[in-house]
Amino acid sequence: MTQELWDLRKYILAGRYDDALVIVDELELMSRKSYIRNIRSFLIRLIILANIYHFVLSPLSLIILPLYL
To answer: Has this prediction a pTM greater than 0.70?
Structure first.
């Protein structure tokens, strides 16, 4: 990412705006991919926690909850 920023600065100072726009597009794509990776990671954790609740805590609640009723 650092190299892309240096290249972007260099292209803007040299007046090579088309090349600078290509780098901006690449940085935007990298940002989108990062955003998608973060969502995917969150969903994987959510699925894992849901499975833990479903297979571990839910059967325990069937045993413990009637004691309080």
So the answer is: no
